[in-house]
User: What shape does this take?
Amino acid sequence: MNWFGRLRASLGKAREAFSAVQRLGRAGIPLTPEFWDQLEEILILADFGVPTTQKIVTGLQTVAKQEAWKTTDRVVARFRKDVERFLTLPDSHLRLDRRPAVMLIVGVNGSGKTTTIGKLATRLREQRKRVLLVAGDTFRAAAAEQLGIWAARSGSELVRGAEGADPASVVFDGVRAGKARDVDVILIDTAGRLQTKTNLMEELKKIRRIVERELGEPPAETLLVVDGTTGQNAISQAKLFNATAELTGIVVTKLDSTAKGGVLVAIVDELEVPVKFIGLGETPDALRPFDAGEFIDALFDETPEAAMS
Assistant: This one.
């Protein structure tokens, strides 16, 4: 199965929600107040969140009034375009023009953070980049071991400290090593943390300051890895990590049949931070750059032209 087929198959729950929107927009159905209530309910259930849902529905109502739309198909066709617009932000590609380009990878335990680093390393090595992995999650021996496996598998270099070592000191050694070895990219794994744990978030600030001090500039990328099945909790994570670490992008993992999809729209809308990658599985090729148009095509059963017919 090709990537698009895998993406469609993985978005089963999300496609149910979007199919419900499409059913509301069959040609010739009159536009009524009940339609707007139904649309709002579907979007909230699809994890768009209340603020983003209200923004989308209010925008559609304004256009519908201005253009005197009488049927629901016009609204649904415009909705599809609006969702793609919400998901499309500038600077959605990795910033790799610096050398070394330091990428700080953050997220809670269980989000797929370390695996994502391994997949990113594999992609970068395929692009003939010299990559160094830094095992900054010193609280779990398994995390460093896992990162070591990915380093060997991808042909990347590795810097790790002793179990329980100060994460910031390991990051310091890693950045120094990356500069000395003239690598292209440094990928830093950080301890999986709950966004509500103040001491761990303060440690993340410290790591960021060390990177900035050693390079004379912030990390080229600070990517938050979120589990696509966690719904509204992913939005909470994104807000708090952004306040602490100044995110430059989101990686959404575990997009499977239980993920509802709307959370991507909500995160991008509320934070104005682009989704840069999505992950559909465990293999190295299961992580791909995010394409808003492709994602929308995978969610909808019909083309925009068919929806208007």
Q: What stands out?
A: The longest helix spans residues 198-215. The CA atoms of residues 40 and 168 lie 45 Å apart. Strands lie at 101-106, 131-135, 157-160, 185-189, 221-227, 249-253, 275-279, 287-289. The radius of gyration is 21 Å.
